[in-house]
User: Which sequence fits this backbone?
């Protein structure tokens, strides 16, 4: 599995995403959950630390600061659900955008897309590194997905970037809005 991190091109050459079973989904769920949990734990720690600094509290109103704290706690508690539904939602969105961008949309297989998204979550293990870890892990995941899409579906580099980013932005906007509404009601 860690061959994926060292040389993704050679890993994707030998990988069969159409293998039976949900091994990839289970692994992807764990890596995504670990990443989300690590990011939110770090953010929670940083907001608790920031609360002790009067200069930071001067820049942010008390209501905004409480909203940020509520969102972090909410994401920390809900991280298993976010990871579980996140893999399926993102895979579905990515599959729809790939069908739009593909020259031959009938050859696309949802199970392959789902397994590809799950396999590419491995770099989320590095999300526990404060501040830089989540950003590096996210970029690494996106790069692995681009390589996988090119290998398995033959979609060009630019089209794969657009498909992935459209899915990411759509999910971020929807999830961020829903989370803020829930946090405001707390």
Assistant:
């Amino acid at each position: 599995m860690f061959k994926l991190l060292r040389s993704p091109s050679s890993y994707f050459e030998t990988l069969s995403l159409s293998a039976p079973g949900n091994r990839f989904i289970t692994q992807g769920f764990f890596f995504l959950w670990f990443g989300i949990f690590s990011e939110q734990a770090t953010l929670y720690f940083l907001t608790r630390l920031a609360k002790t600094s009067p200069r930071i509290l001067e820049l942010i109103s008390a209501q905004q600061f409480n909203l940020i704290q509520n969102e972090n706690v909410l994401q920390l508690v809900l991280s298993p659900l976010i990871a579980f539904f996140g893999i399926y939602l993102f895979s579905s969105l990515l599959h729809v955008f790939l069908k739009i961008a593909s020259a031959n949309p009938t050859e696309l297989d949802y199970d392959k897309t789902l397994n590809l998204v799950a396999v590419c979550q491995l770099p989320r293990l590095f999300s526990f590194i404060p501040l830089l870890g989540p950003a590096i892990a996210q970029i690494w995941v996106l790069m692995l997905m681009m390589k996988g899409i090119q290998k398995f579906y033959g979609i060009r580099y630019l089209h794969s970037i657009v498909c992935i980013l459209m899915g990411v932005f759509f999910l971020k906007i929807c999830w961020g809005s829903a989370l803020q509404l829930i946090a405001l009601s707390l």
